[in-house]
Amino acid sequence: MAADAHYMSVRQMSDALRARELSAVELADAHLRRIDAVDGSLGAYLARTPELARQQAAAADAALAKGDGGPLMGVPMQLKDNMATRGVVTTCASRMLETYVPPYDAAVTGALADAGAVLLGKGNMDEYAMGSSNETSAFKPVHNPWDLERVPGGSSGGPAAAVAAGLAPYALGSDTGGSIRQPAALCGVVGLKPTYGLVSRYGLIAFASSLDQIGPLTRTVEDAALVLNAIAGHDRRDSTSIGAPTPDYTRGLEDGVRGLRVGVVSELFGEGIDPEVARVTRDAIAQLEALGADVDWDVSLPTSRASLAVYYVLAPSECSANLARYDGVKYGYADQGERGLMAALEATRRDGFGAEVKRRILMGTYALSAGYYDAYYKKAQQVRTLIRREFDEAFERLDVLVTPTSPTVAFKLGEIVDPIVMHANDVCTVPANVAGLPGISVPCGFVDDLPVGMQLIGPHLSEATLLRTAHAYEQATGWHDVHPAL
Amino acid sequence: MSTNEQPGRLSAEEVRRVATLCHVGVSDDEVEQLRGEMAKLVAEVSVLQAIDTSAVEPTGHAVEGVHTVMRDDEPAEPMGLEDVLSNAPLREGDYFRVRAVME
Lengths: 486, 103
Description:
Radius of gyration of chain B: 23 Å
Radius of gyration of chain A: 21 Å
Structural class of chain B: mainly alpha
Oligomer: heterodimer
Order of helices and strands of chain B: HHHEE
Largest sheet of chain A: 11 strands, mixed
Number of strands of chain A: 11
Distance between the termini of chain A: 19 Å
Mean pLDDT of chain A: 96
Largest interface: A-B, 75 and 55 residues
């Protein structure tokens, strides 16, 4: 097997498996060896599942020998550690769930298993997906493969670093306020947050239920389409799952961007955005224009600036309700020192949750408590309506909106300690969550040898358009062929 | 207004009230730290107050056609008892054991 097989795309691995140039077991073993060799310095994996991987790979080889299976058959992958895997510890990077072994599979776990995927292990993340740097993981931080002193972004820092460093050809992350797209940008990979409700949240450990969405992190845009094909679709176990039929997302990828109406969101190129990141992103948009897109360089979405405030009311509020379930009775960490029910409950939650999670639970509880509900929670939901309308109006005359994915390149571990400063990392990504829109981050160059991502946002269920646009840009530029030296 | 209220900080009573509501134990040191942090978080989201939302309906889920709905009531195989109890911190027979409610 070629020495750099770990940087083959999902499509290339799939073709090689089908041509019997390599076996799924060999491919899994090559990845497991690379994880052993490299992950000590990255921390992208929390749990590794070598036995399960070889078992699934052997089953895939048997299926491939019979000519069975689709493009994911026998291809390895990583799942963020907030997706339930039956029999495999699922921690959410929290002490609270350090020993939790789910008795069931998440919908996406099942869907990928059905497609013949091979699970390499579980991806490190910010605790309960609350963070933008992966530093709130209760177990260990993740290091950026491009510079080990820097963060990979978050909360899907493990998935992004794993894919960027060739420790998995693809991973699934979750995105509540940017947690797929921002780490994808900071690690130089593709990250897609689908339309809210397109991918089932069944078995995704809940953070903020009206915002959470699962999606792929990959090294190529085509791979993101292949993975989305396997996980999109209605699921009756998720009551907010969309009933809409799902197309083959790889169809039309090559159709180009001629005549595509692209809008540049001016508010997200100015204050608070690093000028070099803005410049590189503008260059990328100029490339889209050169490919035939019809670009409006000055689209104003004034209310979208309020998305950050809306998000930092809604997400903690929903988190405070969702995390009320951790009572130390049915599963999870339980304090053993206190004798009484209420004292044990308070001690369990005091010691089981980390500082960032507790801060958000308190903040959400405050916003939902008597006397504040109308001023914060209801107000944020009303502004959410205004933001949605603003996007709706923009999409009456535009197909795609473009912004930088992250206001800066990857920052240093420990550099940002103020929560408010950390929140500012989400300024470009939260609007899509607030409005339920799909967004994709695609690598678009480097600043100071660190990757920059361009974000494309489209109307609900426009994944095919976003993928086609990102693919056209990627194929014209080739940033996906540049890998970190690890 | 409580006695220890200061500009830029919530009162210690307010922090303790919220911590009690969500059953999160907090030490005196944590309360001191949270007084400032929570005030900053409240200030961060206060920009919303300046936006006119009169007669604007709130949005719960942002995608058309997504509503939290009741599914059809169809019989199905439930999760097995051992699976349900497999992660119980304290178990007694086929039951979850809880701590004393009355002290």
